[in-house]
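Is FE2/S2 (inorganic) cluster placement plausible here? Inputs below.
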Amino acid sequence: MTESKNPEPELVSAPLRGEVSRRGFLSTLAMAWTAFSLAAVGGVGAAVRFLFPNVLYDPPQEFKAGFPSEFAKGSVDERFTAAYGVWIVREDGGFFVLSTVCTHLGCTPNWLPAEDKFKCPCHGSGFIRTGINIEGPAPRPLERYKVTLAEDGQILVDKNTKYQEEKGQWGLDGSYLTWTA
Ligand code: FES
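Reply from A.M.:
I modeled the complex. Tokens:
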């Protein structure tokens, strides 16, 4: 027997080749669809995220600080310093509320009971307990906030209203709560 000059082609049918190709196409299509879907979901997520941006909520500007009898005479109360940025100072004749913002560049001074003053750690400004600046670069006293008595008898601090000594505002109603009990 002689070998044929034109051997039979490999037995891979054309339809089978077409089927593999179709399968590959469908698989590629599925992957593309999945990728598109994920991208779409991601886009929607980003859009929703954009509708609800990160918001830092400030603490309320007005708050009750408790009853006057809870404050020892002569005390500088630091219970509201971290949350509200104030010191509540109790004198024999009443209360005033100091801002914890240094009037130099805005750092937070520390209350030093042994030295009876506030001392700013940033550039060394010092303030006596009334808030008056006595040393360092701070150009003016600490600010005071409005303090009154709420209907239920608690001390009410309102940071929306502030009083500046250099403007003669420490004598205004609301800058001091008279309380002698
Ligand atoms: S910020 Fe307080 S001394 Fe500068």
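Short version: The chain has a mean pLDDT of 86.
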